[in-house]
Amino acid sequence: MPASLKVLTSLENSAGDHCVDIFVRVDGTFGFEEYRRDPEDGSGWFSLHRFSHRVFATAEDALAEAKSRVAWMVLDGR
Fold first, then answer.
1. Taking the complete model, does pTM exceed 0.85, yes or no?
2. In what order do the strands lie in the sheet with 46-47?
3. For residue range 45-59, what is the model confidence (pLDDT) as tens digits?
4. Could you give the CA distance from residue 40 to residue 51 in angstroms, rounded to a whole number?
5. Number of helices followed by number of strands (H, E) in the chain
6. Who's near 58: CB < 8 A, 6+ residues apart?
7. Which residues touch 72 (CB under 8 Å, ≥6 apart)?
8. Buried-state track 59-69, b at ≥16 Cβ within 10 A, e below 16
9. Residue 32: in which H helix or E strand, if any?
10. Which residues pair with 31 in a beta bridge?
11. CA atoms of 78 and 62, how far apart (whole Å)
12. CB contact set of 28 (below 8 Å; sequence gap of 6+)
């Protein structure tokens, strides 16, 4: 995550191998990104580079869009 972004919340799936971060940019807009990690690889989380370019007026809007775009969020009841 670039230093110009501040993560507001991070939601992890039940398997612990995917997460979605909701963030705010320095210009006051919001966004989200999905990440994954492989348990056998100790390198940590990797961005899937799917959604961080999208811009939202509120954190709630970003979260709603994440829920509509990231399948595991619905399956996990996020």
1. yes
2. 5-12, 18-25, 30-36, 46-47
3. 998 888 999 999 999
4. 26
5. 2, 4
6. 30
7. 13, 18, 78
8. bebbbebbeee
9. strand 30-36
10. 23
11. 13
12. none
User: How many whole angstroms separate alpha carbon 35 and alpha carbon 18?
Assistant: 5
Q: Name the residue with tokens 């971060």.
A: 21
Instruction: Give residues with Cβ within 8 angstroms of 20, minimum separation 6.
Output: 10, 11, 32, 33, 34, 35, 66, 70, 73, 78
Residue ranges, the chain, pLDDT below 70:
1-2, 78
Pull the structure tokens for residue 9.
């919340």
Tokens of 29: 């807009």
Amino acid 2: pLDDT: 67
SS3 content of the chain, % helix, strand, coil (to 5): 20, 35, 45
